[in-house]
Each structure stands twice: as structure tokens, then as C-alpha cells.
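Researcher: I'd like a candidate sequence for this fold, 359 residues long. If you have to choose between options at a position, lean toward the conservative one.
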């Protein structure tokens, strides 16, 4: 197809992901409203799990269905890569969005979040991920019974986390929701403006579910095309496989979380924006990690441990920022990105010290 064709398809994939994220955030808010859920359940559970599916399927397929040693390495890399990217690069992108929208006069330079929701997410992530990484230390034997017990414990911990989040009181009303995008289709612009001016009509449940399904399909398809074209372009221009597999591909698979959060930042729905990332961190530290612990030897090398330590350090820094109250600034979020870029510099500067890179 050539470089020009790949670039064109890359732009198309980017647009598909953006459109899917816009549909998803709008639809998932209405779904949460219809089910009477709190913003913690909407952002940290429904949105986080829904958009985490593309990257979660990578270790599941690699470990459970392929099963080779090379596939296990790919699966472990994917399990560790998601929390690493979410806790560093995703926070950085969210902080940049806050500062850009503030400069444009569309919002304040800080986020006002529900500290109960996001703080709980971070504590669960730090606790469960530390357990998972501790099991991967190469200093002791890991009998199958122990690995199964820890894997089951992580899954049960996530169930408990969902129950705790579900018990939060509902804090947002449908008055804050925009018209369901599926409802707008087929309507004249004047009719849409009239509906929005006189109050948003609640859509039927079928339309909400259809829109969420369409959005998830768009996100998955767009991400797959994006990753494929990135790989093709990197091969054409001679980018080192290490840079491709470590930086570009994981960033592409995490695009849904980033775009969802940016959209909610634009709409000044800060708890949903942060919960979408922090909730995904909790999910990735429990369910995929449990699969890796149970179905692989789960022995982490220096490279994998470094990325995990950085993710934990970034989570601790976020906790420190939140200790002062329910406000976190865009600059503080941007500062968490230092962890990501420092890791990239280490890999690029000392590639000979690193084992095979993350997928």
C-alpha cells in the first residue's frame, strides 16, 4: 500500500477511535443513569472495564489459547504494560488536556473529583498490584497451589471492590447528560437544538445499549487498524522494534481510556475522567494479573519489574497529591508523566541491559 496509504489509514483509524470514544462516553453515562449507578460505577467500573477489553484480550489469548513460551512472554508483557501506561502516560495526557482546555477558557486548571472514588481506586490498585508483583519476584519458588490461591484472591478482591463501588450513592442526574447521540441521528439540527433547549428527553434502554455496543465495536476496530498501520509505518521507515513494541503499540491500545478521559475533561466531569483511568488500573492489576499468576510460572525479569515499580511509584505520587483534598491540578497530572519518559530514556539509552521488550 505504501507509506502514504498507511498514513491515510492511520488517520482514519484515529478518527474511528475518537468517534467511538465520543459515542461510548455519552452512552455509558446514560446507561449508568438508567441503572441508577453512582459516577464511581460508571467511570471506574463500566467505562474502565469496557474500554480495557482490547488490551485485556491480548494476554488471555496469548496465555490460554496459544500457550507457547514466546506467547507467555507476550502475555506477561501485556499484563504489566497496561498498568504502566495507565498510571503514567494516561495521567500525563489527561493533565495536558486540562491545561489546554484551561488555556482556551473552557475549564479551570484543576480537577475537582470525588476523592472517595478515585482514592479508593488508587488504594486498591497499589495493594493488589503490589501483591501481584511480589509473586513475580525471582527469589522464591512458586508452587501451583500458592499461585492458584493468589489468583483467586485477586479475583475476589476485584469483586469486593465492585461491591464497594456499587454501594456509593448516586451523585449525578440526567439533567447533566447531553442528548443521546443515537437519538440525534435522523433528526434535523433545529429539532436537536429544540430538544436540548427545553430539556433532554430520556432515551429508551434499547437505544442506549445499541449505542454502547456500536461504540465498543468502533473502538476495537479502530485500535486494531491503528496498531497494524503503526507497525507497518515503523517497518517502512526503519524504527527499531524495541521502540515500536515498547512505546507505540501500548500507547495505541490504551487510546480508548485516554480519549474517554479527555472527552470527560472537556465536559468538566472530572470524577468520570479520572475514574476511567484509575478504575482500569484496578481491573488490570486484578483480573489479567490473576490469569498470568495462575497460568504461567510468573517469574518477572529486571525489565518487567522496573516497569511495575514505576507504575507503583506513580500510584503513590497520585495518592500524595490527593491527600490535600479533592482537587488535583493539571500540572500535577502532567508531572506523573515523568515516570514514563524516564523509563523510555533508560530503555533507549541502555538497550543492551534490557531483556525482550513489552509487546
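Model: Candidate sequence:
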Amino acid at each position: 500500500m505504501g507509506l502514504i496509504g498507511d498514513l491515510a489509514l492511520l488517520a482514519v483509524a484515529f478518527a474511528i477511535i475518537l468517534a467511538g470514544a465520543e459515542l461510548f462516553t455519552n452512552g455509558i453515562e446514560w446507561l449508568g443513569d438508567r441503572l441508577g449507578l453512582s459516577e464511581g460505577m460508571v467511570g471506574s467500573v463500566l467505562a474502565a472495564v469496557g474500554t480495557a477489553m482490547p488490551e485485556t484480550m491480548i494476554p488471555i489469548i496469548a496465555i490460554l489459547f496459544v500457550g507457547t513460551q514466546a506467547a507467555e512472554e507476550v502475555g506477561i508483557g501485556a499484563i504489566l504494560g497496561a498498568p504502566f501506561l495507565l498510571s503514567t502516560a494516561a495521567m500525563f495526557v489527561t493533565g495536558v488536556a486540562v491545561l489546554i482546555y484551561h488555556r482556551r477558557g473552557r475549564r479551570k486548571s484543576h480537577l475537582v473529583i470525588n476523592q472517595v472514588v478515585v482514592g479508593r481506586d488508587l488504594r486498591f490498585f497499589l495493594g493488589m498490584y503490589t501483591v501481584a508483583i511480589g509473586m513475580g519476584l525471582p527469589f522464591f519458588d512458586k508452587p501451583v497451589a500458592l499461585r492458584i490461591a493468589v489468583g483467586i484472591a485477586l479475583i475476589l478482591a476485584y469483586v469486593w471492590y465492585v461491591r464497594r463501588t456499587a454501594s456509593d450513592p448516586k451523585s449525578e442526574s440526567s439533567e447533566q447528560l447531553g442528548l443521546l447521540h443515537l437519538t440525534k441521528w435522523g433528526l434535523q439540527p433545529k429539532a436537536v437544538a429544540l430538544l436540548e433547549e427545553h430539556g433532554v428527553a430520556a432515551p429508551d434502554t434499547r437505544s442506549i445499549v445499541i449505542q454502547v455496543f456500536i461504540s465498543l465495536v468502533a473502538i476495537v476496530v479502530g485500535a486494531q487498524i491503528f496498531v497494524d498501520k503503526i507497525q507497518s509505518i515503523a517497518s517502512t521507515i526503519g524504527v527499531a522494534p524495541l521502540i515500536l513494541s515498547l512505546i507505540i503499540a501500548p500507547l495505541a491500545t490504551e487510546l480508548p481510556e485516554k480519549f474517554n478521559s479527555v472527552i470527560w475533561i472537556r465536559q468538566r466531569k472530572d470524577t468520570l475522567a479520572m475514574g476511567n483511568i484509575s478504575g482500569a488500573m484496578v481491573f488490570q492489576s486484578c483480573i489479567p494479573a490473576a490469569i498470568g499468576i495462575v497460568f504461567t510460572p510468573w517469574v518477572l525479569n529486571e525489565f518487567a519489574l522496573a516497569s511495575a515499580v514505576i507504575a507503583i511509584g506513580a500510584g503513590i505520587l497520585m495518592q500524595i497529591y490527593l491527600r490535600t483534598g479533592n482537587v488535583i491540578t493539571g500540572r500535577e497530572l502532567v508531572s506523573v508523566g515523568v515516570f514514563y519518559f524516564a523509563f523510555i530514556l533508560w530503555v533507549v539509552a541502555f538497550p543492551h541491559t534490557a531483556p525482550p521488550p513489552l509487546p
